[in-house]
Amino acid sequence: MASVLLVIDIQDALSLSNDISVTDNIRAINALISTYNPQDVYYIRHLEDGSEFDPNQKTSQLHLELNLVNNQIIHKYHHSAFYQTPLNVLLKKKNIETIDICGYQIEYCVDATIKTGHYLGYHVRIHQDHIHTFSNHHLTKEQIKTHYLNQFKLYGKLI
What we know:
Blueprint: E1 3-8, H1 21-33, E2 41-46, E3 73-76, H2 87-93, E4 98-104, H3 106-119, E5 123-132, H4 141-152, E6 157-158
Parallel strand pairs: 1-2, 1-4, 2-3, 4-5, 5-6
Helix pairs in contact: 3-4
């Protein structure tokens, strides 16, 4: 079964969070990337005008510490890596049946991409130790992750 790794939103804007775990997260994601053939890795880059993800801002670039093994970068303006992007067409041309997911942010782009991929008919595998988020005013990042991992079991396989 042909599979690819989607590396979601590992961008310089992450550094603005002041979360010291970002560097460790990126190192772990780089280690995961190294287990895939370079042609099977797709980088997802979130773009949003007027924000830290504005295409004209340095902070919207893929993170300097992220291991880029190719130039397969999908630009998106919505949470899902599939919505109004060429990703689905590219994967169908390669007869991809399984998508593996890692990256940021669990409750936004990771969530939307997992669910869209599931509804498009892909087998979805979620690298649970390689998806991340940040604490907010109400919940810790651990609470957010636990909640979403329970939800993701409905849409894919946790690995």
